[in-house]
Design goal:
Distance between the termini: 72 Å
EC number: 3.-.-.-
Organism: Micromonospora maritima
CATH architecture: Alpha-Beta Barrel
CATH superfamily: Glycoside hydrolase/deacetylase
Strand content: 5-15%
Structural class: alpha/beta
Radius of gyration: 26 Å
Number of strands: 9
Keywords: Hydrolase
Number of helices: 10
Enzyme class: hydrolase
GO molecular function, one term: hydrolase activity
Largest sheet: 6 strands, parallel
CATH topology: TIM Barrel
Helix content: 40-55%
CATH class: Alpha Beta
């Protein structure tokens, strides 16, 4: 009740507070129980979130997996990488530009595209490096451990057949990591490679030179630089500016290396900071 001054009576106030606290406690308990029920329905062991197969034996190659975004080094090295190919759309143009400027790169290939367009890369990967970018560019982090492994194994075989080189690096689509991705990478003895810096084509429409200047200014020693040789028209800004990017980085004293070469050089005593 409320007294004449418009204030709650002490007994009423205590009773209502107790009811509110009790309701909050019941609500929290119900939410917690609901979460537990939902969690019990998830395929935890071997599911997308799990990096193990539960109580089964973990056959994971050498027993570990390395994830790299770049390296710390005082040596001006940069690794140029291209995702999503090969396709007739732009892959030959990228390979021609790299050949003209004698620049090695690492191509993270989609297995289905490598099989379909094998002629684009066959005999052209000398000096370059290939990595696995999944079979059909689906999200590996949403797959369970078995499906992720099967997807990557299928892609691995297609890339090996198309290029004559077995990939030893993995870059999952969109950089999405889940437990199942880690487990599959370990089983296949892959290194997981993400990136330090990504090309930002959308910020420089119709301005290849401006985009090249932006990338050249942002690169630091040990950078893994992400580009694409497949996509919509806006990505041509980066590819058309690739000669300026190469020239600008070389003017700053940078040497282009593959990802694996970058990791090897950074591991040499005195090179890493």
């Amino acid at each position: 009740m409320v007294d004449g001054g418009g204030r709650w009576g002490r007994r009423t106030l205590l009773r209502r507070s107790a009811l509110l606290l009790g309701g909050a406690a019941l609500g929290s308990a119900a939410t917690l129980e609901g979460t537990r029920v939902a969690d019990r329905r998830l395929p935890l062991a071997g599911g997308p979130a799990s990096a193990t197969l539960g109580n089964r034996r973990q056959d994971v190659g050498s027993g570990g997996v390395q994830v790299v975004w770049g390296v710390r080094t005082d040596t001006p090295l940069v690794a140029l990488t291209f995702d999503d190919g090969p396709r007739p759309q732009w892959t030959p143009m990228v390979l021609d530009t790299l050949a003209e400027h004698r620049v090695p790169a690492t191509f993270f290939l989609v297995g289905e595209r490598a099989r379909r367009h094998a002629a684009l890369v066959r005999g052209r990967m000398g000096g370059h490096e290939v990595g696995n970018h999944s079979w059909a560019h689906h999200d590996l982090a949403r797959m369970d451990a078995t499906k992720a492994h099967d997807d990557l194994s299928r892609s691995h075989d297609a890339i090996t057949a198309a290029t004559g080189v077995a990939p030893r690096l993995l870059r999952p689509p969109w950089g999405h990591l889940g437990g199942s991705v880690l487990h599959a990478a370990a089983r296949l003895d892959y290194r997981l490679v993400l990136w330090t810096l990504q090309m930002v084509e959308g910020e420089f429409p119709h301005d290849p030179a401006g985009h090249a200047r932006r990338i050249v200014a942002d690169v630091r020693p040990g950078t893994i630089l992400l580009g694409h040789d497949v996509g919509d028209e806006r990505r041509l800004v980066a590819l058309r500016g690739l000669p300026d990017m190469i020239a600008g980085l070389r003017a700053r004293g940078y040497t282009f290396v593959t990802v694996s070469d970058l990791l090897r050089r950074a591991a040499v005593p005195g090179a890493a900071r």
